[in-house]
Write a structure and sequence with these properties.
Helix content is about 50%, strand content about 25%. With about 270 residues, it is α+β, with helices and mostly antiparallel strands. The protein folds into three domains: about 10-70, no CATH class; about 75-175, Band 7 domain (Tetrahydropterin Synthase, Chain A, 2-Layer Sandwich), CATH 3.30.479.30; about 235-270, no CATH class. Strand 2 (about 35-40) and strand 3 form a beta hairpin. The longest helix has about 50 residues, at about 180-230.
């Protein structure tokens, strides 16, 4: 094997060193990420400057960059908590969060890259236990779900906002009660619904009865007024009008054979 020329070996070594230098001295930050610079000989983590943004960066080869995702992320957290009466409830929640961009250096320095297990997850569990412990299983199962979700969010946010984490939302995705308790609650809710329906029918029937009474009273009053206003003369006039209309009918033959009661004509005849 031929020996490399004396001038070629230094060049080869220089190229290797250059490649190593470039690989250590450059970094590319992807979309939705940011980098925390660690200066080995200048005080460690940089907290008084903005983090490294997206794109290509040149750094000293003896320094380091810790990359964090800074977009909104989601974490699922299944828990077992106790209701106000001590019943064990299975609760599944998820959190939408992201690190506070301008505080990324402080987050890395104080909490590290596993800040989820150190800060966020314990905060969610603590808030959930505190909130759920104020309510009965029935409230958790039915009407209080949205209120509980909002209270867990508020209490978790109070804890993590001072820990350089931005909490955007808490979603309670599932509340699981023991089967016997769930069945008892469902029976009770069904009975309450049936009771409401029965009460509604009673109210409807009562209103209908009131309506009929009012209508009957109105008719009775009208009849009394009409009876009081009908004189003998008015009755005779009405009888004459009816007789004339009957006589004018083409399907009726009318024979007057004297006078009837009260002087009204006596009508005999019928249809052809």
């Amino acid at each position: 094997m031929e020996k490399l020329p004396k001038i070629g070996l230094p060049i080869f070594i220089a190229i290797i060193l250059l490649i190593l230098f470039v690989s250590k001295a450059t970094i590319t930050i992807d979309s939705g990420e940011a980098g925390v610079l660690y200066k080995t000989f200048e005080g460690g983590v940089v907290t008084d400057e903005p983090p490294l943004g997206e794109g290509f960066h040149i750094i000293a080869p003896w320094n380091k960059v810790f990359v964090y995702e800074v977009r909104q992320q989601e974490i699922f957290e299944p828990m077992q908590v106790l209701s106000s009466n001590g019943l064990e409830i299975k609760l599944e929640a998820s959190a939408w969060y992201q690190p506070i961009y301008g505080k990324l250096g402080a987050l890395h320095q104080q909490k590290g890259q596993n800040y989820l297990s150190r800060v966020l997850q314990p905060a969610i569990r603590s808030a959930a236990r505190s909130v759920v412990g104020r309510y009965t299983p029935e409230q958790l199962y039915s009407s209080k779900r949205d209120i509980i979700q909002e209270e867990i969010f508020i209490e978790t946010k109070k804890i993590v906002e001072s820990q350089y984490i931005q909490l955007n939302s808490i979603l309670v995705r599932d509340v699981t009660l023991p089967p016997t308790i769930k069945q008892a609650i469902e029976r009770k809710l069904k009975q309450e619904q049936e009771s409401l329906e029965y009460e509604f029918r009673l109210i409807t029937a009562s209103k209908e009865a009131e309506k009929q009474i009012i209508e009957a009273e109105g008719k009775a009053k009208a009849n009394r007024i009409l009876s009081a206003s009908l004189t003998d003369k008015i009755l005779k006039d009405k009888g004459i009008e009816a007789t004339l209309k009957l006589a004018q009918s083409p399907n009726t033959k009318v024979v007057i054979v004297g006078s009837g009661k009260d002087g009204l004509p006596l009508i005999l005849g019928g249809s052809n």
